[in-house]
Request: fold
Amino acid sequence: AQKITQTQPGMFVQEKEAVTLDCTYDTSDPSYGLFWYKQPSSGEMIFLIYQGSYDQQNATEGRYSLNFQKARKSANLVISASQLGDSAMYFCAMRDEGYSTLTFGKGTMLLVSP
Amino acid sequence: GAGVSQSPSNKVTEKGKDVELRCDPISGHTALYWYRQRLGQGLEFLIYFQGNSAPDKSGLPSDRFSAERTGESVSTLTIQRTQQEDSAVYLCASSLEGTSGTSYNEQFFGPGTRLTVL
Reply:
């Protein structure tokens, strides 16, 4: 069974600073994918970044990077140079081998202040 | 091209009534997913369609929930005899194909339907 844990219900960061959003996962499968989505107050889910379990390097997409520590089963999202528009809910999700659907964590609300 | 669209955007209904929620996936996307998001929670998988294969209904919470998909196009999620605990945002997503494990295959989400059961 897959499980995603996001232990931070809310995070605050000042504009232009970096912030790390935590995500740990549990799976018995060696093959899986990890995703991060952003959900602004408008409600749409916006894909941010993906990491495969066999990827040798941490994924990066612009200001987003994924700190993937396989032995610890963690996949933290790092946002560099935070912007006011980064204020949103952030969800970590995973997909196991043999499943096509995503299992989501409960999310972390990020608030960026000027 | 157009993204995933859902209708209605908001639906208020009385307990015990049936509701139908509609999803139009991105053209050419063979995989379609329904999720439910309760207030302040993450997304819960409901049902998954892949091409002409039998749908994966393992996430449907009760037999009051059902969904259909016509070929590789529109899908409708039906909730019969709605209960107050059905109040949530229902999100639809589509992807080029359903894959598993490490295969990257981005799911594109619609704006959701906010269902309120009084």
Notes: Residues 54 and 63 of chain B are 17 Å apart (CA to CA). The longest strand of chain B covers residues 43-50. The beta strands of chain B are 5-7, 10-13, 19-24, 31-37, 43-50, 65-69, 75-79, 88-95, 108-109, 113-117. Chain B has a mean pLDDT of 90.
